[in-house]
Amino acid sequence: MKRAYSKWSSVALITAIYVLAGVAGVLLFNFTNPLIANPLIRLFLADVLATIIVWVFGLLYENVSVYDPYWSVFPPVAFLIWAFYTNTWSLPVILLLIASWYWGWRLTRNWAITFKGIAHEDWRYTKYRSQHPFVFHLINLFGLNMMPTLVVFAAMLPGLMLFKEQQFMIYDFFALKGHDCFKFIICIIGFIVCIGAATIQLIADKQIHDFRAANPGKYCNVGLWKHGRHPNYFGEMSFWWGIWIMYAAFNGIDGFIGGAIAMSAMFLGISIPLMEKRQLANKPGYAEYRKQTRILI
């Protein structure tokens, strides 16, 4: 189904696909209410259904990159919908919404800048498609679409748990004392980590885009990229750790730390090694840069 769409007609098409996936997810969430009492399970199933719909359109357009914006779109939208669903507007929730929408805006903006149209597929997906033709569709569904959805949902769980902290309302802020004040200070630290992480990504985006425009074919080693080979990935991992810190401020260390760990493991074990291999093969001098520069910041 490869066709010559312009960039912005492609954006409109992706938007329509995501609206359809979102509507389907909302319908599933509502229709399963009599059968499944736990709303978090229903939200998870809605997330899975939306992912499957995006995957199907990726098949139709022969382009796994149809899924790419899902990573940055679902969390902020889901958090906002959850706020309305639970009618919770506590201070931790408001901070979570601000952080997630700022992060989501940054990542979606970067996708829009680098997006070349529905006919262009990310090199990682093309690599899997060519190297594993017989099992590619399984890799596509479970590895390239569903696995990131599951990891992101796991990393979102600490944020979703923040909606239980309804005692920390805006009008209670100046009355906080003792242990509650300490909890909220830790929550603020987590919020700062989130904002700082997304800002690092935003700066790294501009630096690498400007560098590539002026130095095509070369690896970026200026600004943040001078101090770390993957400041954008560092920011992404840090954002989810910030979400967890906000949660841990009120709940301590428990099993919900697994989402942030899984997120870091995915970048350190899959995304970064793939990028490093590509850079070593295509960017002269990258091996020396790699020896002199830390993997993160």
Topology:
Blueprint: H1 7-31, H2 39-60, H3 70-86, H4 91-114, H5 123-131, H6 136-161, H7 178-214, H8 224-227, H9 231-251, H10 258-282, H11 286-292
Helix pairs in contact: 1-2, 2-6, 3-4, 3-6, 4-7, 5-6, 6-9, 6-10, 7-9, 9-10
Average pLDDT: 92
Output the radius of gyration.
20 Å
- Biggest sheet features: none
Extended strand count: 0
The N- to C-terminal Cα distance equals: 42 Å
Helix content: over 70%
* pLDDT < 50 stretches: none
> Helical element count?
11
- Hey, roughly how much beta strand do the residues contain? under 5%
Secondary-structure element order, as H and E?
Answer: HHHHHHHHHHH
Name the shape in a single word. globular
Structural class given helices, strands, pairing? mainly alpha
Number of domains: 1
In brief:
It contains eleven helices and no strands. It is mainly alpha-helical.
Describe the structure.
This protein has one domain (7-292). 34% of the residues are buried. It is globular, with a radius of gyration of 20 Å. Helix 1 (7-31) packs antiparallel against helix 2. The mean pLDDT is 92. It has eleven helices and no strands. The chain is 73% helix and 0% strand. The longest helix is centred in the middle third of the chain and has 37 residues, at 178-214. The chain is mostly helical and 297 residues long.
Name its key features.
single chain; 11 helices
